[in-house]
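chain below, 144 aa
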Amino acid sequence: MKITLESVQLPETEIIIRGNVTSEEVISILQLLRSKTSGKVVAYRDEEQFILNAGEIIYAETGGSGVIVHTSKETYETRQKLFELKDQLCAQGFAQINKSTIVNINAVKSIQAEFSGNYRVKLKATKDVLTVSRKYFREFRDRI
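prediction:
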């Protein structure tokens, strides 16, 4: 892939690269920067790159060597850290519910209190049940 002129605008910065850019690393960085402002997430599955819209993502959790992104049909992995993904998706209706999980608030079907003080969240599109810890419940409730 060759890029001859690329401009990416971020809230406080503008990056302009002129000339022929062929480095895969630079192209990946540009795609990542572009995704931070567009509500899209770059994710991987079986050595293939996918561009996911924020609305497609039901929840994301840390797992293995990265962050696992769950949609209604597929599971992907992203190279971002959970806090980076949270910062990127916060404006798209996501909230952190425990130290290793963020959830799309629009994908929540119901919330149920547990005896421990935590809460259980059932999702609309999957049968997965997630735990909202006491520490993150206020932030979650405020985002609803």
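The mean pLDDT is 82. The chain has two domains: 1-38, 39-143.
thats it, cya
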